[in-house]
Amino acid sequence: MDPSGDVPFLGARCDDIMHVTDTRYQGMYQWRCCLLDRCTAQPLQQLLLLRLRTMASEQKNFKKKVVRLPASRLLTQAQELSRKAVARRVRLVKAVAPGAGGPEVLYTLSHRQEEQLIPYSLVQPVQAGARRPVLFSPSPLSRGLIEQLLQPAMSQLQFNTCPPEPIPATERCQKHVFMLNPSIPDDSLGIRLQSIQDIVSQDKHCLLELSLANVQGLLKQGVYPIVIHIQPKNKKKWFPQCGEEKLIEDLCRREELQLETLPLFHHTLEPSRWSSTDDLLSAIRSAIDSQQRAVACVEFERLQ
Predict the structure, then answer these.
(1) What is the pTM of this model?
(2) 120 — phi, psi (to 5°)?
């Protein structure tokens, strides 16, 4: 959202967390919010005004503004308006008020207007007491990363893993069982919730080979995993399987889309963060440490 305006506005972007304190600030179509720190869930700014009517009507007025211009300025002005429209789009994330006695949420837009806005998610910050399990994306990297993270003797004081085990067919649909490949019915390998809890009780991060499809199931069991997405520098170098290269690339593409639908935030390691395997492992350890200290913002409505 563009911060310019007649009254103090704060720039915001996708995945920012805002606590909405008044949905009818000085009348309708304007919200008063606090922008929260993603790590601590504490307010960064005390005032954020969100002009909902402006956002809803901007696309509707876009064509009218363009067609009134001289032909010589049409393309330039259209590009400028498009840039401003993109800058104003925002994914609103509002904290759920704890308990039934929280303030009532007043929706000030009609259904027709709401359809023109980017939807937002209701989240609640959770401070995990114990060390959180860790999942990796793309999932084909999990096994190799886990083996390397556990190699230094000192690492075993901080990390451990749950090797997948055969799960009887009668147990595979149970809530306390997480299958390694839930999309493959014949795959019998999985990890039990009790195995994860045993490692967590030792004050260690449980490094899991599970795919992103298991995140929602873990959350339903009160387990708040740290999800680390690694953007490879060269997929062909990382996944050299000749016959499976296309399948691996398709899987990575699907998982990148899955990341956007997870009921909690993930952490991304950009290619610029590392230049060697040792750099990558160091960056992963640092990311796990920082995410452990941060709150986990969870969309509990998606877990019903």
Answers:
(1) 0.74
(2) -120, 170
CATH topology of domain 134-299: Rossmann fold (3.40.50)
Q: How far apart are CA 138 and CA 232, in angstroms?
A: 9
Return the bridge partners of 123, or none: 95
**What is the maximal distance between C-alpha atoms in the chain?**
72
Type of residue at 161: T
Q: Token pair 């170098």 is at which residue?
A: 237
- 290 — pLDDT class (breaks 50, 70, 90): very high
Instruction: Give the model's pLDDT for residue 226.
Output: 97
CA atoms within 13 A on the CB side of 241: 10
Q: Among all chains, which residue has been given the structure tokens 């007649």?
A: 6
Domain range summary for the chain, segments of one domain joined by +: 17-126, 134-299
Buried b (16+ CB within 10 A) or exposed e, 279-293: ebbebbbebbeebee
Separation of alpha carbons 217 and 220, rounded Å: 5
Q: What is the pLDDT of residues 84-126, one digit of tens each?
A: 444 444 444 443 444 444 444 444 344 444 444 445 778 889 9
Residue 138: is the preceding peptide bond cis (ω within 30°)? Answer: yes
Q: CB–CB of 10/45 below 8 Å?
A: yes
Q: Provide the pairing of β-strand 267-269 with 43-51.
A: unpaired
